[in-house]
């Protein structure tokens, strides 16, 4: 079956996701993260694209990118090839690192641009990898906090807001707006889910969930569902019925 053509953005802006093959970890240590950022910086200059947001998770990558003179497919191919060559040499491996083609969605208006911008920066929080926004080191969040325009094209984004404070406040408001969701398409192991539960709730066992008041319990269930945990798996690990979880999720 031929591949479906990618949707093009009228603004040449796309939300891009790269993910490890078979959910493989991409970044083993901080040097791997730094190398990928260096590759982005290199091709940002040579291919003349703009980066408005990025987030490097352990097994997938988010980019908010505007391409101008060079086609997005060619940009992503160059980035992938250069990083994988370096990665394979470092770890003495061969073969693919990334799964299939990169995923992308077009951004056709600035309202949705703002949604994607916030979604990318809140990805570590919603995945349970940080308890406070800004603690995760491998995203462009702190470029905006520190007004550092040396790599990320922050000024274009700041122009969408009335002030610096309005932009940062927007970033910090916990949002359940969904974009091209990664976790919904992946299977999380029970061990991974238990780690997310520990990070995103105050519960460590099913009995802890049973003692929660209804409002708090529903809030926790909504958080966990947003992190990509299926209702079936959530029910099994929390002891809460699927019907109760479905009701809580629908309320959100």
Automatic annotation (TrEMBL):
Enumerate the Pfam families for this protein: Y1_Tnp
What protein am I looking at? Transposase
SMART domains listed in its UniProt record: Y1_Tnp
- What PANTHER family does its record include? TRANSPOSASE IS200-LIKE DOMAIN-CONTAINING PROTEIN (PTHR34322:SF2), TRANSPOSASE, Y1_TNP DOMAIN-CONTAINING (PTHR34322)
Domain Transposase IS200-like span(s) in chain numbering: 9-123
InterPro entries given for it?
Answer: Transposase_17, Transposase_17_sf
Q: Organism, per UniProt?
A: Blautia aquisgranensis
Q: Which SUPFAM superfamilies match?
A: Transposase IS200-like
């Amino acid at each position: 079956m031929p591949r479906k053509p990618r949707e093009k953005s009228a603004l040449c802006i796309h939300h891009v996701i790269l993910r490890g093959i078979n959910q493989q970890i991409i970044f083993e240590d901080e040097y791997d993260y730094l190398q990928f950022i260096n590759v982005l910086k290199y091709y940002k200059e040579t291919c003349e694209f703009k980066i408005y947001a990025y987030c490097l998770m352990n097994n997938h990558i988010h980019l908010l990118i505007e391409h101008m003179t060079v086609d997005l497919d060619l940009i992503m191919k160059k980035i992938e090839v250069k990083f994988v060559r370096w990665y394979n040499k470092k770890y003495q491996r061969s073969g693919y690192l990334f799964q299939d083609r990169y995923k992308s969605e077009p951004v056709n208006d600035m309202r949705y641009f703002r949604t994607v911008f916030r979604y990318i920066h809140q990805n570590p929080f919603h995945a349970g990898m940080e308890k406070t926004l800004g603690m995760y080191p491998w995203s462009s969040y702190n470029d905006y906090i520190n007004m550092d325009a040396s790599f990320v094209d922050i000024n274009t984004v700041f122009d969408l807001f009335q002030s610096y404070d309005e932009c940062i406040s927007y970033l910090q408001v916990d949002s359940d707006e969904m974009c091209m969701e990664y976790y919904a398409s992946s299977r999380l192991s029970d061990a991974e889910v238990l780690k997310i539960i520990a990070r995103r709730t105050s519960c460590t066992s099913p009995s802890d969930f049973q003692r929660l008041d209804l409002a708090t319990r529903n809030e926790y269930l909504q958080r966990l569902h947003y992190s990509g945990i299926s209702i079936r798996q959530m029910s099994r690990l929390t002891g809460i019925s699927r019907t109760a979880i479905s009701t809580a999720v629908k309320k959100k």
